[in-house]
Design a protein that fits this description.
Length: about 120
């Protein structure tokens, strides 16, 4: 990382330092097992060599829809996160977790006046 910074400074490209630093930090974190937050990290050969499933994760993220913002967005994230965790840990069957997440989301939508 220091080598890149020295090259940027020597070339008079100090303005590029934050961009390059962010890319290097994201890549370093991805190599430690943290989810990438930049497209270049998802496509990095070294990252993909260690975590080949990131290629599929990137494709899934590319098709994702934005989470709607409404009065109970934080609670919505709690409901979905809890149910995903319970299913992933084997504490609940996937079908049950999806059913319970849907029920929780419907309750929040009703409370917000977005569902009757």
């Amino acid at each position: 990382m220091r080598r890149w910074l020295a090259i940027l400074l020597a070339l008079g490209l100090a303005w590029a330092q934050p961009v390059v630093l962010r890319a290097l930090i994201v890549k370093a974190r991805a190599l430690q097992g943290h989810a990438p937050t930049r497209k270049d990290a998802f496509e990095d050969p070294e990252v993909l060599g260690k975590y080949p499933y990131y290629r599929e994760a990137q494709a899934i993220i590319a098709r994702a829809k934005k989470v709607p913002i409404f009065a109970y967005t934080a609670e919505m994230e709690d409901v979905v996160g809890r149910e995903i965790s319970l299913a992933a840990s084997g504490q609940k069957r996937v079908k049950e977790a999806l059913r319970d997440a849907a029920r929780g989301l419907e309750a929040l939508l009703r409370r917000a006046g977005l569902l009757r």
